[in-house]
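Supplementary Methods S3. Complex input for the iron/sulfur cluster-bound model.
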Amino acid sequence: MVKIKINGNEYQADPSKTIIEAARENGISIPHFCWHPRLSVSGNCRMCLVEVEKSPKLVIACATKVADGMVINTKNERVEKAQNAVMEFILINHPLDCPICDEAGECKLQDYSYKYDKGVSRFEEEKVRKPKRVELGPNVMLDVERCIMCSRCVRFCDEIAGKPQLVFSNRGDHVELTTAPGEKLDTPYSMNVIELCPVGALTSRDFRFKARVWEMSSTESICRGCARGCNMNIWVRNNEILRLTPRLNPEVNDYWMCDNGRLNTFKYVNSDQRIKSPMITKDGEMVETSWEEGIAYLVHKIQNFKKNEIAGIGSPFATNEDNYVFAKFMKQIIGTPHVDFSRHIVEGEEDNLLIRNDKTPNTLGAFEAGVYPSEKGYNFQQILKAIESKELKCIYVLCDDIAVAPEVRDALSKVDFLIVHSPIKNTLTAIADIVFPTATYAEKNGTFTNFQGRVQRIRPAIATAEMDRSSDGMSLSRWDKFGAQNDKWTKGNKLDVRPTWRILSSIANTINPKFRYNSAEEIFNELSSTIDSFKGLSYLKIGSKGAFLNKKTINEKKSIKVS
Amino acid sequence: MAQTKITRTSDLTFWQKLYIPEIIKGMKITIRQMFLPKFTRQYPEERWNPPASFRGRPVLVEENGKERCVACGLCSRVCPALAIEVQASETELNKERYPVKFEINMLRCIFCGLCEEACPEEAIVMSKEYELTFNNQEEAIFGKDKLLISKENLKERLEFLRQYR
Ligand code: SF4
Ligand code: SF4
Ligand code: SF4
Ligand code: SF4
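Predicted complex, serialized as structure tokens:
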């Protein structure tokens, strides 16, 4: 540790750190474009110039190591003048695009223009024109004019994604970012360059022009794309999810997220295939019904079966809370030992950055929460066989389209009574006898447990008929805050869906009045007091970054077999 | 509670207290007006043409058959009454984006003119129109069909704005 002085205050610093890192650790931010904590230092934007006493010229804070007794100034007149000059220089060829630029509102260049620029340009010549709509790859769009040549994207591809797909061509003010001829920016992590890009040069083709950033609310959540459980934010406008962006968590996903997670895990929430009310099959046709009637019908029907004729299939897509209530409902209320869930493993997908073979967010959690066969109970494969042999006649399936596999579909269509929870119409709901529409991960509170055993929170981002944006503590955009009853955007499409635990609770309640839960948190508290591996955890402790399961008590005997 | 003492700046004079002379003074003014030229307008047959500085309902400027607006949403953000809703989309034109949907809720609009001031494209301006009637709330939401007005018809306002640039 060495002693340094920044802006007159003394700090301790690690001598292997650069000035920008040491300052950051002590809460002092030095403006920068090209430096990024996870990328190599390139030192080309010159925005981080600071004054170091006894050094004749200003130095760049990103590439200068701290030394004992160093006296650093990050905001005196000399530094400010240099910052003004760098800003003026960068803006020479930067187009006046803010009104049509998706980055506006979260743009480093914009922010720094307010903070460090004089607001006038002495440049009277024509700006250099460059191509504006370059499709760099399947998911990323490039506006060459807006690029400030910081090389963050280039370094990301080389160093993090491990695929050197981007390069600069030409020189001077004609420099252009490009891919090698015939190549595309198509790594599974390509969209991370969008947030890395300090300006609006790289934008998402999916989100392009959909909304301005200040019009959306953002909610901290967890990606459901695989067992990594990347921390992310859900961005919503008019009760519709428009994009997902990674949220920093050094122990899980760092600054990153994969393209598949970003693009393919939320669209079903907005889909017109959502189920709008409980449905029952009458004379071979699905008809809508009310919640009360649906539940009464189920309770009436289920009494026709012996408890050993019923099996429950939980879901690695559902939360710990949902699975816990489901396991408890099946084992205690129904009294069947046959409880399991289906795994979704795709071999060979795994890499050493984020992506996992297990394509569900909560395999470990479903298991730990109790979704496994009790003694003499059947596992998933055995359940299918027992259906064929007519031993099992009634199956209860939680949100998971297991029927996409033809053999599962064949088996399940032979069941006398098939109960399904699902947010969306799919192959499984098509053969069900009763369907309850459930809230998706973006419409409820709960937790997922990732492959590391880390329990992480999801929060509602989309309002439903039973969940109100302002009264249920959801995040609000300015429009949500000040909208009135008769404004179009507040009327939005609110579905009458309920979280699985609430549906199960209402069903169980009619059989055993003591079985009742009022919130996901209440369930979690029960779960953490009854299941060893969850001991000591609470929503408060999980917070926004997650908390670990009790590693020692994860039951080895039950431990997940990849089948 | 603090007490406020009410004091008269001046007491009524003797003549004012008499009351009758004051009434006569008032009648004099009234009777004089009867013989002066009349200002009453026979609205709606006779309409008023406001000066260029007048802030009537906000409209979108149409140029070469297209809106100038690039759907940046700044007017929508600045509007203190949340009257404006813009939905952008991509266009082949040079400007890259345009509003597929542009709506102003005229029941919300307070005619402040901030949208006009915020617009980087001079695409939304205050017109001279002050006659607004609707029979229900839906009708009060003006879409692009009602908002687009050709540049030629907004000449006066555009020139007025130029003076202050
Ligand atoms: S990159 Fe930033 S500064 Fe440049 S046009 Fe876009 S928002 Fe404006
Ligand atoms: S595209 Fe963005 S990240 Fe890449 S070099 Fe240009 S400014 Fe930097
Ligand atoms: S005039 Fe004022 S209130 Fe009316 S739309 Fe414009 S900004 Fe909103
Ligand atoms: S500020 Fe101007 S350009 Fe932007 S959305 Fe409004 S009218 Fe269109």
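Confidence is low (pLDDT under 50) at residues 559-563 of chain A. Chain A has three domains: 2-91, 98-270, 279-441+496-536.
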